[in-house]
Specification:
rod-shaped, 231 residues, single chain, 10 strands, alpha+beta
Length: 231
């Protein structure tokens, strides 16, 4: 019985006009490598053996950690290797200096003003504003003011995130933050009480492109062939 050869298997498919690719994606405790022939997912003993070798090459283990990775390596028959790029991104936090001013009419009674935001790099900012009164009640004018304030804050924070630039090369990913603004901590300006938001927590990501090469040299191919032939 003819021995199975991973090199011959790859070359036979290549010579038949097929494109061989290994792709991967994951991070944050889950991830996987998969094999495609002409864009179609393929699973057999040969592809599983190659995937195991690519797992070792990428060295992500269980894919645990605050990162995201994805990439693709294509078979090159002349080099007898899979070559490609791993796109690696690592998440971290940053405190951003901002200058967002809120003006509240003094005639509106309240004890605290709660403001929350949620933003993602691929979407507009969602905002929420609400008054809290310890003793008393709220009227429609409070509700209308909060609605208008939410629209203003949406524009302010969209502008902050759209214009975010980092000297360290970070890319903005998302932000979830909130503030409890005490009436007693405001400053007076005419008929208004003025609050300022000067800091905001954001999540950012660093990106790095890494070359990936899985060469089917004598040692690597021999190890795979031993598995394929149960030696």
């Amino acid at each position: 019985m003819e021995k199975k050869s991973i090199v011959q298997w790859c070359k036979d498919l290549h010579e038949a006009g097929n494109e061989l690719n290994m792709k991967w994606e994951g991070g944050g405790d889950s991830g996987w490598v998969y094999f495609e022939v002409d864009g179609e997912s393929t699973d057999n003993e040969y592809t599983r053996a190659l995937i195991d070798q690519m797992d070792n090459t990428l060295n992500y283990g269980s894919w645990a950690g605050e990162f995201n990775a994805s990439g693709e390596a294509t078979y090159d028959a002349e080099k007898n290797a899979f070559e490609g790029t791993d796109f690696y991104g690592e998440d971290t936090n940053e405190v951003l200096d901002v200058d967002v001013m809120l003006r509240v009419p003094k005639k509106l009674w309240f004890d605290t003003l709660h403001v929350e935001i949620e933003a993602n790099y691929d979407d507009h900012t969602n905002t929420s504003a609400s008054f809290l009164v310890k003793n008393g009640f709220l009227i429609q004018e409070h509700t209308d003011f909060c609605h208008n304030l939410e629209q203003e804050l949406k524009k302010d924070f969209d502008d902050v995130f759209d214009n975010y630039k980092s000297e360290a090369g970070y890319e903005f990913r998302n932000s979830t933050d909130s503030w409890i603004l005490e009436r007693s901590e405001s400053t007076e300006d005419g008929d208004d009480l003025v609050f300022k938001i000067t800091k905001i927590d954001i999540q950012v990501m660093t990106e790095e492109d890494r070359p990936v090469v899985l060469e089917l040299d004598e040692e690597t191919a021999g190890a795979i062939d031993n598995i394929l032939n149960d030696e």
